[in-house]
Each structure stands twice: as structure tokens, then as C-alpha cells.
Write a structure and sequence with these properties.
It is a single chain. This protein is α+β, with helices and mostly antiparallel strands. Helix content is about 50%, strand content about 15%. A four-stranded mixed beta sheet has the order 1-4-5-8, with helices on one face. A four-stranded antiparallel beta sheet has the order 2-3-7-6, with no helix packed on it. Strands 9-10 form a two-stranded antiparallel ribbon. Strand 6 and strand 7 form a beta hairpin. Helix 4 packs antiparallel against helix 8 and helix 9 packs antiparallel against helix 10. The chain is globular and about 80 Å long. The chain starts with 6 loop residues before the first helix and ends with a helix.
Length: about 375
């Protein structure tokens, strides 16, 4: 498979690059943070993004989307990473849409996919229950029978949960707390009785939520996939999120690196540009090579997801783990090479470091994916 973008993909990327830089730059994230904006993103800009096909990048054309696949979603995410654009793209256009495509009924797809593609519906995945990612460790229970259930439990780190119209909730319909079997996914209206959502701002000036569920009534029509067999859909949803996050982390690393190179070319010390110092040149060259490796594995992973290759999960582990590690290194180097100014809030590099840390931990860090890769390989 060729690691080269098609002409259409190049055009899509270039349009995304221009739009993100003009309408959703780092300055906008800073303002949202300083204003303590209730949503944490601009709904007006999100609507414009929807008009450009971002919200419906994974949604098939018959449901009003662009149908541009995971490679398209990754191209958008890379530019989001470069600009630290605040959007519900990951939570809604990637996680929410993947869940509906993989396990949604015809009625669910018809009801929700066009609304997502149009930028009118925000969806959030409510799955994690621990501080560290453990996707199959679920204590939230769905009790009942005969097509009617009641959900009770608590979810944490629900991305964009504070503004979501619908939650995709993982609950245990059978089995013990750590079992992969017995998991079921439910669509839940955030306005339903028994749902309590608390906003939890994160260190990177993005937003998540804690969700309390107390005897929330749901039925068979709210199930995504099959009762007790939801882990198959959940794994696909998380892999999609991890791959697109890897693309965003690539963007974070690229922009941090380019800003640092610019500074090395301008800053003078001892009568010379610091970019002429051999030790800094070596560090920059090493980082360039690492970023190019991430670029290759991210594109290959997104292609594998589009093709639904059997070993796509292995590549997802490689991409997310490597991207998390390289983004950490890139932002560390950026702060160090900028010196004292790199430590100040007035300078944007700190925003990139914080985003690299938060995104690197989301849905599994480097160590989580190194372990998962080994398990998938049979070790």
C-alpha cells in the first residue's frame, strides 16, 4: 500500500490547513481558556467546520456526510494539532460516528448521522471509569430485562461530555467487572432523568466531564450493537479514536518543531545564531527523523482502518504509542530550546506541551500500547 496521499486528499488537507490557521488558531484556544467559555469551543466555528465536511468526514454520503474515511479524519486532526483547535471532532465525528457505523441500527443511523454531519448534534463516549485507561474494566450496570434496562454507575474523562446531546455509555449486562464479555453500549440522552454531568476542565485547556447515572431508563432501541457483545464495537471505536489522536499528536509535534527551528534561526548568543551550534543541530536532526517516522506509521494506520485490515489494531498501538512519545519529546525540546521564554504562559509553546501530555494519556499512553501490542502479537 502506497504511503502517498491522493490528489483529493491533498486538496482536502490544504483546505483544512488554511481554515484551521485562520478560524481556529492557538489564539482562539487561549481566549476560550481565559474567558472560561461554557462550551470550550466555538459553536459558530464548528458549524463552519461541518460545512467544510469535517463533522461528516466519516459519515457516508447517503447520510449527508463527506465519506472521506479515516485518512481524511487524520488529515483534519493533524491540522487541529498544529493549531490546537478546540473542536468536538474527536468525540463526535470520530468516536460517535464510528460507534454508529459499526453497531448502530438503521433507525439510529438515519436519526443521528445526518445531524452529526450537519454540526447540529454533539456525541460523547462515556466509557472510562478509572484514572488510567482500562476499557474493559466496567462497573456501571444495566439491570432489567425484556428489552428495558436501568443504568447506574459513574464515568470519568468523558470528552466533551459537558456539551453532549447524546452519550454512548458502556455498561455491564453480565459478567464480572474486568471481563471483556458482558459489555453493552447504550445511547443515552443527556437530558434523561438520572443523568448528572459535571464539567471537568483539563490541563490542556480542553474539556471533559464526569457522568453520574442513577437508574437511567433505556431500552432495546438504545442499544448499539448486540447485548453482551459490545466489546467488539467498543474496541473499534477506541482504535479509531487512538489513530486520529495519533494524527493530532503528529500535528502537535510538527508545529512545535517548526516553531523551534524558527527560534533557533533568530536567537543570538555569544554573537552567533544558536541554530549554528552543533549540539542543537544534532537534537533537531534527531527530532526531524522521529517525526517523519510518526508521519509514516500514522498514515499507514489510517489506511488500514479504512481497509478494515485484520492487523489494524496492531498498527493503531504502534501509531498511538509512537506519536505520544515523539510529541512528548518534541514539546520538551521546544521548551528547552526556547529557554526561559518557553516557560511563560504568554508564549504558546506551553500550550503544545500540555496538549501533548493530555492527548498522549487519552485512550492509552505509550506503555499501555506497548503492552497491548505485545498481547496482540501473542506474547
Amino acid at each position: 500500500m502506497s504511503l502517498v496521499l491522493t490528489e483529493d486528499q491533498l486538496m482536502f488537507r490544504d483546505a483544512a490547513k488554511r481554515f484551521a490557521a485562520e478560524r481556529a488558531p492557538v489564539a482562539q484556544l487561549r481566549k476560550l481558556r481565559d474567558d472560561n467559555d461554557a462550551a470550550g469551543f466555538s459553536r459558530e466555528v464548528w458549524k463552519e467546520m461541518a460545512d467544510m465536511g469535517w463533522a461528516g468526514v466519516l459519515v457516508p454520503e447517503e447520510h449527508g456526510g463527506a465519506g472521506f474515511g479515516y485518512v481524511g479524519a487524520g488529515l483534519v486532526a493533524e491540522e487541529i494539532g498544529r493549531n490546537l483547535s478546540a473542536t468536538p471532532l474527536l468525540s463526535t465525528a470520530v468516536l460517535g460516528v464510528t460507534a454508529l457505523l459499526r453497531g448502530g441500527s438503521a433507525a439510529q443511523k438515519e436519526a443521528f448521522l445526518p445531524a452529526i454531519a450537519g454540526g447540529d448534534l454533539v456525541v460523547a463516549l462515556a466509557s472510562d471509569e478509572k484514572n488510567r485507561h482500562a476499557p474493559h474494566s466496567i462497573a456501571t450496570r444495566a439491570t432489567g430485562g425484556s428489552g428495558k434496562f436501568k443504568l447506574s454507575g459513574r464515568k470519568v474523562h468523558v470528552l466533551d461530555g459537558h456539551v453532549a446531546d447524546r452519550l454512548i455509555v458502556t455498561a455491564r449486562t453480565s459478567g464480572d467487572v474486568e471481563s471483556r464479555d458482558g459489555i453493552t453500549l447504550f445511547l443515552v440522552d443527556t437530558k434523561a432523568s438520572g443523568v448528572n454531568v459535571t464539567r471537568t476542565p483539563t490541563v490542556d485547556s480542553h474539556n471533559a466531564a464526569a457522568v453520574e447515572l442513577r437508574d437511567v431508563a433505556v431500552s432495546d432501541s438504545d442499544v448499539i450493537g448486540t447485548v453482551d457483545k459490545g466489546a467488539v464495537v467498543l474496541d473499534a471505536v477506541l482504535d479509531a479514536g487512538r489513530a486520529v489522536l495519533a494524527a493530532e499528536l503528529l500535528g502537535v509535534a510538527e508545529e512545535s518543531f517548526e516553531r523551534t527551528l524558527g527560534y533557533l534561526r533568530e536567537r543570538e548568543q555569544f554573537g552567533a545564531k544558536i541554530g549554528t551550534f552543533q549540539s542543537l543541530q544534532h537534537r533537531a536532526a534527531h527530532l526531524f527523523c522521529e517525526i517523519e517516522l510518526v508521519r509514516s506509521v500514522v498514515l499507514r494506520t489510517l489506511q488500514a482502518l479504512d481497509a478494515q485490515e485484520p492487523t489494524a489494531s496492531n498498527l493503531v498501538c504502534l501509531a498511538k504509542g509512537k506519536a505520544s512519545d515523539v510529541a512528548r519529546i518534541a514539546t520538551n525540546e521546544a521548551v528547552q530550546m526556547h529557554g526561559g521564554i518557553g516557560m511563560t504562559d504568554e508564549f504558546d509553546i506551553g500550550f503544545f506541551m500540555k496538549r501533548a501530555r493530555a492527548a498522549g494519556e487519552t485512550f492509552g499512553d505509550y506503555y499501555y500500547h506497548a503492552d497491548r501490542f505485545a498481547q496482540l502479537a501473542g506474547y
